[in-house]
Amino acid sequence: MLKVKFYRTAIRPAMLYGAECWPTKRRRVQQLSVAEMRMLRWFCGHTRRDRVRNEVIRDRVGVAPIEEKLTKHRLRWFGHVQRRPPEAPVRNGVLELVDNVKRGRGRPKLTWDESVKRDLKD
User: Fold this and answer.
1) Which residues contact 20 (CB under 8 A, 6 or more apart)?
2) Each residue's pLDDT tens digit, 41-69
3) Is residue 89 domain-resident?
4) Is the pLDDT assigned to residue 1 strictly greater than 80?
5) How many domains, the chain?
6) pTM over 0.90
């Protein structure tokens, strides 16, 4: 139990530090999820060879998936930004749209605003 408490108070916040501002892609979320599951398996004393499902380990430890926590952090930060006055620097920098910029070829980069819109939709 002590390991789980340490995980919740020290490791998970370190993994999600600054995550409010990340435009998270599937690949980054997958990397965070893999790192989390490796630690939780280690806490429980299981290896991949034991073939214990992730859901079973999460239920045993009592930890929510890191993707849910990431979304929760991002939406909480969005709420803070929305409550600031319109002239606040954080609001100007985050919500400012740039026009007349020539974009490169390929798919446009994922922005923080698009990540928040996706989270709100979900």
Assistant:
1) 73, 74, 76, 77
2) 998 999 999 999 999 999 999 999 999 99
3) yes
4) no
5) 1
6) no
CA–CA gap between residue 21 and residue 7 (Å, rounded): 22
What is the C-alpha to C-alpha distance for residues 63 and 18, in angstroms, rounded to an integer? 20
Burial class (CB in 10 A: 0-12, 13-18, 19+), 4: middle
What is the average per-residue pLDDT within 85-107?
Answer: 73
Q: Does residue 94 surpass a pLDDT of 70? A: no
DSSP state at residue 84: S
> Helix (H, G, I), strand (E, B), or coil: what is residue 64?
coil
* CA pair distance 5, 12, nearest whole angstrom: 10
Residues 6+ apart with CB under 8 A from 89: none
In a domain? residue 73: yes
Q: Is residue 103 in a domain?
A: no
Does residue 104 form part of some domain? no
**How far apart are alpha carbons 102 and 110 in whole angstroms?**
16
Range of the domain at 76: 2-97+111-121
| C-alpha–C-alpha distance, residues 103 and 24, integer Å | 20
